[in-house]
Design brief:
alpha/beta, Rossmann fold, six-stranded mixed beta sheet, four-stranded mixed beta sheet, 19% strand
Amino acid sequence: MRKLIVIVIALLMVFSFAFLPTSMAIANLSAKPKVPLKGFLSASASASPLGGPPPGHGPKPKPPPSPAPNKWAVVIGISKYADSSANLYNPDRDAKDMVNALESIYGFADDHIKLLTNKDATADNIVASINWLIDNENETSIVVFFYSGHGGQVDETETAKYGYPIDPEADGMDEYIVTYDMYGIPDDYLKDKFSAIESTQFFLWFGSCHSGGMSPDLNDNGRVIVAACAEAEVAWDYLLLHNTLFGYYYVDQGMLHMLGDLNGDGTVTVEEAFDYAVPLVTEQEPGQHPFIWDSDTSNDLYL
């Protein structure tokens, strides 16, 4: 009888998800056309992009002494936006799961991770956190930049108004992520900031619509870039998964629950988590194809 009750409950959970209205169960992570931006972060924005003097930015401090690992991460997840019409379900859960995985699976120290969720993920705080990352990492570090939330595309002539160059991209579009306070941070801005990263083990994860288009600007030696979908696609956020679709299979299941250990060696590399997640995401959403760019295809990156 107990087994029968468990089976009945499980079936009810499946059918309650299957028959929820689409608008209640699923949201996409696109910033267009629903989400009105205040504008784009200026190409010259410092740690206080919205006004006020930037903090001091002196020489890089030495990494903390052993046994603290030389691993550094900025993790961002935004489910609640200043414009509530832009609210999502689970990107903040993606971010918290990623922090959990970094600490419990990969040995990151708590004070080596900047976690920004919801109202803390303002343009100012994101830029300051990137500066913190640059100030602390070095050529032997493992570095992570993680973002889950709204993303979008815009014609390059629009970002050019904010000081960005017109890149020779085939589609003439810039991709961007959206801050809590509704500013777009274009891939050109991230390209410029991340050019100061010395690490040759740099992992970038984007859980947003059009995120595959971030790669052409951010590709560099020693980097692995993972995105929830291809450049022309949207990514999906599922209410009852308690994660975005890609975040669930990549972070929660692939990394945190170690299901991405595809070769059975007791570790999950960023590439293994990707290979685990992709077929499950595309089976659920045939129009969403997660993307990876890897500067070193002969070696996997273990965080």
